[in-house]
Amino acid sequence: MGRFSLSFILLFCFCTVFGQNITITGVITDELGETLIGVNLFDAKKSKGAVTDIDGKFILKTEIGNQIKVSYIGYKDYFFTADADNKSLKIKLEPNVSTLNQVVISASRRKEKILDAPASISTISSEQIENRVAIAPPDILKNTTGVDIMQTGLQSANIVVRGFNSPFNTSLLTMSDNRITRVPSLKINVMQLIPATSDDIERVEVLRGAASALYGPNSSDGVIHFITKSPIDQQQTKLSLGVGLRSKIDGPVLDSGNANSDLFDNEKVTERMMFQTSFYHAQKITKGGKNFQAGYKLSANYFTGYDWQYKDPFEADTIIMGNQTFEGRVEYLTDGTVIPADSVAAGVRGDFVDNRRDPQIDKISFDGRFDMRFGKETELIFSGGLTNINNIELAPLGSIQGINWKNWYTQTRFIHKDLFAQFYINGNNAGDSYFLRTGDVNKDRSKSMAAQVQHSIEPTARFKLIYGADAFLTRPDTRNTINGRFEEDDNVNEYGIYVHGDYKFNEHLTAIGALRLDHHSVVGGVFFSPRAAVLYKLNPKNTVRLTFNRAFRTPGTGGFFADALSATLPTGIDVRVIGNVEGFGFSYGENPYFENRVLPQFASPYTTENGAYLNVGDQSVNDAAWNDILNVTVDEFANIFANNDAGVNVEAIATIVKNLLPDSLENVGHDVKALNLTTRRFVDTEWENLGNVIPLKNVETLTYEIGYKGILADFLFLQADAYYTQMKDYIAPTTLITPNVVLNTDDLLAYLEPSIGPLIESLDNFDNFVNALDGNPVVNGVQNGTVRDEIENALIDAAGNLPIGTISPTNVDGATMILATRNIGDLSVWGFDIDASAYLSKNIKISAAYSFVNKDRFEVPEAQFGYVALNAPQHRTRFGFNYNIKQIGLNVGTGFRWQSAFPANSGVFVGEVDSFHDMDLNLSWTPNFHDNLSFTLSVSNLYNNRHQFFVGSPEIGTSGMFRISYAL
């Protein structure tokens, strides 16, 4: 009886305690610590539950011992048992669709889910990067929605988002670990100079659309952010060796100016091969304990190969090397001796050297990083890297032969709780690189420095605030080869402050706002970049957003401070690139030859009065100019006869031409023409309404977007964005701003007609002369038994393409043709991007994307040839397939791309780019019996559909690389 009573009492006490009522409170967050609204907590025993409020908090009444289920769409279920000792809980849920709703940092400069990001954004994971062989960073981005890639070689490419591509583009911000990676003074994106290897990249984030409210200048089109691995969190040692081959171009290499190119592709297979090797080592150097952790990583990469070949008709086979100075061009002898500008002007010349393109690419890069972590909330990170490359790079006024072009950086980052600060320096050394069209050496030794600080607070669970300040200091150093007279006054300082906040009204609606203020030391004033967005969550897996951004783009220092002589015409007129920091004003006067209208006036090297400006039609300079034109014509004949070995006495011809043709002109008027930088021919132009050119100012961009992101049926991620963008004061690529005065060819021909007949009759070796000249295409001749038309064509061609003066600004030196950058007007464009990725199973993924822009050509009278080109296609689509066969460790991926044709108009590169399609194949195998070993094969343009990505660049065909990697 005693034992029964004791057992009964114990059982009664246990049941009483176990069934005791309890109130549990807590907060529920996601893996980022963000509170979750509307999470369900369910007590099955009591058939009751609770729901988290706007702050992620809950109050649940239950009984001790009851099991509680926590559920939320898109997250794994969480279970806990009610316990009297734990009445206040902090629950963190894990996503069950993490591959579709990744964490990103680029949209708001803080961690957030891609569905919550108030921008159009895509990510490329480390797994995707590892499953292909990327010989340069642009390869990683090839299948990214909205990204336009202008591939100009195996390593070289110009990349933008949503169009407006060009050589040396500056509208897209490229970053690596929060460091802006642009080449310092030019502000251009040369992604092959980023030293990080593929093994080191954790992910790449691509932000489409304006981002100036957070990032400041030159992010008006978007941001591409390379994020690398921390050696504390991920350790690995990996060695990779790769060998590849590009296809051969049958027949003559593409020549945009001459269909009968004499350049052929490399015949030997060994001269079309590529080799790549990389090393990556990341190691944690502390053991145990969490109060202090440290780690370091080192990486190196080497690539060599022969690039796709191209023949530029305006690149001479031999050239005299030199560089520009304020006094003029100096020239070099082969032993390194420099001939001063005044000696060159007096006729002392440098040595001619071989100027044929060197297609061999050699690239070596190093990168290092050291991390220290103090506790859980403080980090100090040091990093630095260097890239040295030899290759050919497309530039606005022609291509550059890069020789030992070096780019380096150092960076220090500090993170403490919600505080982030960093300082970095980017450096550039162009080595012995030079412009292939002119032989001018580019001695760019520029640097840029940046200091940034950012802090965030959460006054309430509903409200988050980020604020910060940036300073960007650019210090050009071109040794007078680029910035000339501005070399000592070309520093640029940019400062910005910003604030960004978002407020959750309820579980569906979030409002986002940002404001940034920037000051540019050259442009002056303060530029405002506001951002406003409304994010509406239909449910936790589907969001709709409306956004507005005002962004801006600042010119590079070259646009402000360039000062370099590009060429000197036989008539003594200089062609000079000059920065538009002060604007350009022209001389105007009443012109008696045009009904006394007030028209622009021209300067001429033939005027007797220094600094005088003449009215178009003033014939006082014609006689002196005509004698130079005659000399050029005779030289042209000499070249023709030298090439034809006609046995003609060239000196006798010169004497006859100069004696029989008049050395003075009467009643020969003037025409005004503009130089086509692509064909190097003078064409008609509207000059009478020529206005002054204002100093460069920022381009303002207003972008309105509506977007949707959603996860459907837990396997399909869909993103659709439509945008409308207005650009005010658009900056055109470098173009000629000075019309030129030439002799009126109709008047000239009428005046010379009586002299041409006697000239022909007096020629020695008449038959040989006719045989060499009659029908010669150099002078557009017609084979008709006479050389009258050939002589007339030669004279008229010389007169029409040798200006006797130029409508030069008053703030330049005399008769000078000016190449400059300027604001030319307003543009507007709209388009949309659609991107879908579906996981048909855990191992099979398919994807598709389509991008559209409403126009690829914008009529702007002030622009070169009267229009601005998008330099990108209106239509672009892609399809992708990926199958991960885990049973054997094989990953198979393919990608198909198609894009429409489009016009190109950028600097000296003008023409049409044809539509094209191609396909890539990627195979990656990590054998199950040896998971430290992997084999990867990547083939671009699988079926060798040769095409140009841009005018002035080579045709691109099939290329492939096979890589073996071993993880130690």
Summarize the structure.
With 968 residues, the protein is mainly beta. It has three domains: 18-92, Sandwich (Immunoglobulin-like), CATH 2.60.40.10; 104-317 and 355-559 and 698-735 and 821-967, Beta Barrel (Maltoporin, Chain A), CATH 2.40.170.20; 587-690 and 740-806, no CATH class. The protein has a 22-stranded antiparallel barrel.
Structure description:
It is a single chain. The chain has 3 domains: 18-92, Immunoglobulins (Immunoglobulin-like, Sandwich); 104-317 and 355-559 and 698-735 and 821-967, TonB-dependent receptor, beta-barrel domain (Maltoporin, Chain A), CATH 2.40.170.20; 587-690 and 740-806, no CATH class. It is built from 10 helices and 60 strands. Helix 8 runs antiparallel to helix 10. Residues 10-16 have low confidence and may be disordered.
In helices, the fraction of residues equals 10-25%
**Per DSSP, what share of the residues sits in E-state strands of 2 or more residues?**
over 45%
> What gap, in angstroms, lies between the N and C termini?
72 Å
Major beta-sheet overview: 22 strands, antiparallel, barrel
Which structural category do the helix and sheet elements fall into?
mainly beta
Average of the residue pLDDT scores? 87
* Model regions low in confidence, pLDDT < 50 over at least 5 residues: 10-16
The CATH architecture of the largest domain would be: Beta Barrel
Note the total helix count: 10
Please tell me what the overall shape is.
elongated
CATH fold label of the largest domain: Maltoporin, Chain A
The level-1 CATH class of the largest domain: Mainly Beta
Number of strands: 60
Radius of gyration, CA atoms, in whole angstroms: 34 Å
